[in-house]
Design a protein that fits this description.
This protein has 309 residues and is of the alpha/beta class. The protein is 47% helix and 14% strand.
């Protein structure tokens, strides 16, 4: 099948008319790290935001910022024009989605933003089709801070009329919206390719710092050496800084990326892509998790290099 060309837009391409935003009701289902940040930013942009979380205490602080805090999914989505699911995995999304038929308002759009892999997205798409739910596959790139500041990248696939209806919300949460076309699952496919890159460079930074340290160098010298060169990235300096400080405040939990690596490896196997690098990288994240760093930031993969074979 010939894919439609990807389309990239930004706020500059299509300025949002603020008076349209003011009335737009958005529901965020899941107020973990990402959902809380998204909801908070949508509130700051003037959207009418309702939140729901399985553990209600984690949604409650958003009430101070002006959110309506719902006690169940059905009442949370009633009246919403756009509903965002941002939950840990496919099981969680399907569990929550079971509450949507009959509860979603006419004309609403469901942006499925959680990272749930190809199989998970296919299962969610089947459920949506069976129940006539207006699904858009829309995983996001970026972590806690980009979620809080509306600087995520949304990777969007689905019917164009649904994407159009949800565009004010997509553009509010994102610095960039990348459209892959109409085929549900292509946003997720792109997300998996992006997270393979994220995991590989994070493990690579840790490896180089560990190698420098093991050879008797101050590991900071590695970051100084690459700084400003073609092989530097802001990410290397950011995560490398956390690694040299050995403090890992969570922007993206290590176990979350370990989960994604499983989904990425499944996709690679399914499409005949060699999994050698993925297996090595997964091993590092698995070791760090087993050593008790699963709820810390992905930068804690550095700890896995301290356990010598
Ligand atoms: P998180 O902080 O661990 O939050 C997970 C959320 O899922 C919480 O709201 C949690 O509710 C909910 N949940 C888990 N199991 C559930 C279930 N069975 N039923 C209902 N709700 C359930 O995770 P996060 O970092 O926000 O990530 C959310 C999604 O975004 C994941 O798919 C992740 O891969 C993806 N993502 C994360 C990042 C990042 O940097 N953090 C970046 C891009 C994409 P409770 O509070 O009740 O546990």
């Amino acid at each position: 099948m010939v894919k439609q060309p990807a389309r990239i837009s930004s706020l500059l391409d299509a300025p949002i008319e603020r008076h349209h935003l003011m009335a737009l009701a958005v529901t965020v289902l899941g107020t973990g790290i990402m959902g809380r940040g998204m909801a908070s930013h949508l509130l700051s942009e003037g959207f009418d935001v309702t939140v729901w979380n399985r553990t209600p205490e984690k949604a409650q602080p958003l009430a101070n910022e002006g959110a309506h805090v719902a006690t169940d999914v059905a009442s949370a989505v009633a009246g919403a024009k756009v509903v965002i699911t941002i939950l840990i995995d496919a099981d969680a999304v399907l569990e929550v989605a079971r509450e949507l038929p009959g509860a979603l308002a006419e004309g609403a759009v469901w942006l499925q933003a959680s990272t749930i892999g190809a199989e998970g997205t296919a299962a969610v798409a089947r459920f949506a089709e069976q129940n006539n739910l207006p699904l858009v596959d829309s995983p996001v790139l970026g972590t806690k801070q980009p979620a809080e500041s509306g600087q995520l990248t949304a990777l969007v696939a689905g019917p164009s009329e649904l994407i159009k209806a949800a565009r004010p919300v997509l553009e509010a949460i994102s610095a960039k919206v990348v459209e892959t076309g109409s085929r549900i699952g292509d946003g997720t496919a792109l997300k998996l390719a992006c997270n393979a890159w994220l995991a590989t460079i994070t493990a690579g930074i840790a490896q180089s710092l560990a190698l420098a340290a093991a050879q008797g160098l101050d590991p900071q010298l590695f970051l100084d050496a690459i700084k400003g060169s073609a092989v530097d990235t802001p990410y290397a300096q950011l995560k490398g800084g956390a690694m040299t400080a050995e403090t890992y405040p969570t922007a993206f939990a290590l176990d979350g990326l370990a989960k994604d690596l499983g989904l990425i490896t499944d996709a690679a196997r399914a499409h005949g892509v060699d999994t050698g690098i993925l297996e090595a990288v997964s091993g590092r994240f698995g070791t760090a998790s087993a050593a008790g760093h699963g709820s810390e930031d992905i930068a804690a993969v550095y700890e896995s290099f301290k356990h010598r074979p």
